[in-house]
Amino acid sequence: MKYAIIIPDGCADEPQASLGRKTPLQAARKPNMDRVACDGVVGQSNNVPDSLTPASDVATLSLFGYDPLKYYTGRAPLEAAAMGITLGPHDWAVRCNLVTVIDDVMVDFSGGHVSIPDGKAYMESVREHLYGGPLEFHAGVSYRNLMIFRGSPAVPAPFARETKTQPPHDIPDKPIADHLPAGPGAELLRDLMTQSRSFLDGHPLNRTRRARGESPVTQIWLWGQGQAPNLTPFHQLYGKRGAMITAVDLLRGVAAFLGWTRIDVPTATGYLDTDYAAKGRAGVEALNEHDLVCVHIEATDEASHEGKADEKVKALEEIDRHIVGPMVAALQRHGRWRILISPDHRTLLRERVHGRGLVPWTIAGSGVAPSGGTYDEFAAVRGPHRFDRGEDLMRFFLGD
Predict the structure, then answer these.
(1) What is the value of pTM for the model shown?
(2) What average pLDDT does this structure show over 91-107?
(3) 8 Å CB contact between 326 and 4
(4) C-alpha angle with apex 190: 188 to 193, nearest 5 degrees?
(5) Is pLDDT of 31 > 90?
(6) Cα dihedral across residues 101, 105, 110, 113: positive or negative
(7) What is the chain's Cα-based Rg?
(8) SS3 content of the chain, % helix, strand, coil (to 5)
(9) Which residue ranges form the domains of the chain, and what is each CATH number?
(10) Which long-range contacts (CB under 8 A, 24 or more apart) does 206-211 make?
(11) Please, which pLDDT band fits residue 400 given cuts at 50, 70 and 90?
(12) pLDDT tens-digit series, residues 206-222
C-alpha cells in the first residue's frame, strides 16, 4: 500500500464577504480535491489541545499521529533538527525572527519576507553583536532563524516550561508591550531583543529595502523555545517509512525526528511564489521509494497572515492542479493506495492569525467507501467521522 498526505497549511477558514460568503476552500476551483472527497470520505479533527498554542509545531505532531501533550517541547528544537544542529541535554533552541517593529508595533513578522541572502546578512550582524558565551545564532531561511543556548550543569539555561513567549505572526499590527517574553529567562530574551534594535534598525540593507518599498528589519524577535524532544520513529509506531517535501524548516525538523527522508525542492520558497509543480513532481518521484509521502505547502498559511483571500484561493487552486492531481494519478499506478488531504490548523483571514477548532480532512483510496461529497469546512461537519484527538486520525488513515 502507498500513502500520500497533502497539507495545505492553515487552509481552513471562515466564510469571506469578498468571496461571496464562501470559505476559500469553497471558493477555490479544486476538482481534484473534490474528486478525492467524492470518491472517499470527509471528516473533522482537532489537532491542537486546549492547553497548547494553535500552530504548526503542535498541529503537525497530531496530524502525524503523535500526542502533542506527550511529545511537544517547543518549535525551535524541531527547526534545529532540520538545520542539522544537535542539541545536548542542557541546550535550548529559541526561534529568532527578523521582524519590523515601528513605534513599538509589530508591523511585519517576517521583515517583509526578507530574501535568503538579506536574511543571512542581517544574521551576520546579529552574530557580530550578540554572539558569545553560551549563545549561538544560526541563519535559516528568510526571516526564520535560530538562537541556541548551550547550557551545562555549571551554567544552566535560564528557561523552563513556564517561560512564555509569543509568535510574532499572532500579533500583526498590535503593540508589542503586552506580548513580550515572561517567566524564567524572559529578562535575557527581552534584553537581546532590545539590543538588536541598536544595530539592525540602522543596518545599511534597510536603506536599500526602504528605497525598494520593502519593510526594513528593525530587530529580532525571540520565541518558540524548547529542548530536544524524544519521538519514537514513525516506522516503529506505524510500520511505514516516510518522506517529507516542504520548504519550511519546522516540517523538515519534524520529519527528522520521525525518521523520514527529507526531500528538498530548490525552487520551493515557503511563500506564495513557491514552485507548486516542482513539489508535485518530487512527490510523485518519492512514491517510488517510500511507503508514505507527505507534501506540505505553506502558501495558504502565508496568504492568511497577510489577509489576502484571493491569494489563499489561488494557492489552493495551484495545490489542486500541480500536487493533488499528479499525486492521485501516481498513487493509482502503484496499486493499493490512500491519500489524506488536511490542513494542520485553521488560519483566519479575518484575524490574520492561527485559530483553534476542528479542521476538515478528506481520505480516499483502497477500502474507502465513496461519500459523494465535496471537500470544505461545511461538508466535513456533515461527515461521519470526527476525531477530537487529532492523533487518532493517523491509524484511521492507515487502515489500522
Answers:
(1) 0.87
(2) 97
(3) no
(4) 110
(5) yes
(6) negative
(7) 21
(8) 40, 20, 40
(9) 2-72+230-398 (3.40.720.10), 82-226 (no CATH)
(10) 209/112, 209/114, 209/118
(11) low
(12) 999 999 999 999 999 99
